[in-house]
Amino acid sequence: MENAANKTELAGMTREELTGWIIAQGLPSFRGRQIFEWIHRGVDFDGMTNLPAAMREKLKETAVAQSVEIRLQRISALDGTVKFLFALRDGNCVEGVLMHYKYGVSLCISTQVGCRMGCRFCASTLEGLVRNLTAGEMLGEILAANRYLSQGKEQKPEKVSHVVLMGSGEPLDNYDEVVRFLHLLREEEGIRISLRNVSLSTCGIVPRMYDFARENLPVTLCVSLHAPNDEIRRKTMPVANRWSIREIMEACRNYIRETGRRVIFEYALSEGVNAGEKDAAELAELLRGMQCHVNLIPLNVVRERNLKGVSEETVREFMQTLEEKHISVTRRREMGDDIEGACGQLRRKTIRENNP
Ligand code: SAH
Asked: Of 8, 10, 16, 28, whose CA–CA distance to 189 is shortest?
């Protein structure tokens, strides 16, 4: 039986690296370029029509072109949001969410199978970290979504134009592969997604935030803050025991200085934890004068967790307090509420159903 795991994953290579690999296989270098272009168009070996059939068969024995397949998809009847369960070659699964906006098509991708950050409100971390995704797999999530978008469309299918690293996993805990992936997005003749259309969300791994600022990539940094002070933050986020909010704020200011981009703070409201008027006022004070934006999210209640959500009124009041204090704030649109849209929930559900 063939062992897919031992094959070389081509999707994670730059055009130059792939060309080098092709030459090492004893093939002419222009084949590397052709294969690179096919891969970034989401095409597997069988569809690489400008390659001789025998060459394709030979390559299939040692390499993998497309690393990700769609195992399951659910389309929201409410807003057309699509939730994917992506299958990786080793049998693991991760989730992605495709959202249609006026400005384009946005895909939320996963960066790890599971997560080791242990946030108490999050479904992705319930079984801890299984493994890091490779850069090729992160790209593969986008390519799989693009294949989905082109189904049945001969002419000019829509393509993913915006990417958010906000699915399962902590991107800065898989730093090297995430940075490699970001570089792949702007390779010539590749998928060509502008890094200005990319957001990366972190729970606040401070040293990596400094490293990331030094990469000088125009990516929007989002920070999962979820609390106005360390005491509250420690209740739901174990990572808060390692780095203080003060250290996170310094790292954010540094990111703003280095990249010129504003930072987005995510704040999931949970009744009795962080959603009071006093919390809003404290948050406003913390962020005063900073080039930032707050994204309020009514907590998505996860079955396995015992945290509560909030009422519409609580969200409104919290938002109003921030606005009165001149903090830029929006409420995140809840998309795909009927399709287990929140992180980790579809994978959890599939695990539950397969292990009754
Ligand atoms: N590890 C990264 C990115 C993945 S989580 C991070 O922590 O930012 C993406 C976002 O969803 C984070 O802001 C996370 O805190 C939030 N999130 C996780 N579970 C949630 C839930 N049940 N309800 C609302 N937001 C949640």
From this structure: 16
Mean pLDDT computed over every residue of the chain: 93
From atom 14 of ligand 1, which residue's Cα is the shortest distance away?
224
Task: For the beta carbon of residue 254, count every other beta carbon within 10 angstroms.
Answer: 15
Q: Which residue's alpha carbon is nearest to atom 3 within ligand 1?
A: 166
Q: Whose CA is nearest to atom 9 of ligand 1?
A: 166
Catalytic residue status for 247:
no
User: Is beta strand 68-75 parallel, antiparallel or unpaired with respect to 82-88?
Assistant: antiparallel
Q: How far apart are the first and last CA of the chain?
A: 30
Strands (E), the chain: 8-9, 63-64, 68-75, 82-88, 93-101, 104-109, 112-114, 129-132, 162-165, 198-202, 220-224, 263-269, 292-298, 329-331
- 11 and 140 Cβ atoms separated by less than 8 Å: yes
| SS3 of residue 13 by DSSP | coil
As a whole number, mean pLDDT of residues 2-27 equals 90
CA dist., res. 354 & res. 123, Å (int): 17
Instruction: Yes or no: say if 169 and 175 are a contact pair by the CB < 8 Å rule.
Output: no
Instruction: Quote the CA–CA distance of 36 and 143 in Å, as a whole number.
Output: 13
Q: Are 181 and 167 in contact (CB under 8 A)?
A: no
Tens-place pLDDT, residues 43-75: 999 999 999 999 999 999 999 999 999 999 999
CB within 8 Å of 95: residues ≥ 6 apart: 83, 84, 85, 86, 110, 167, 168, 343, 344, 345, 346, 347
The DSSP line for 298-344 is: E----TTS------HHHHHHHHHHHHHTT--EEEPP---GGGT-STT
Greatest distance between any 2 Cα atoms in the chain: 69
List residues near ligand 1 (CB under 6 A): 117, 119, 121-122, 166, 170, 201-203, 224, 266, 268, 297, 299-300, 302, 342-343
CA distance 344 to 349: 9
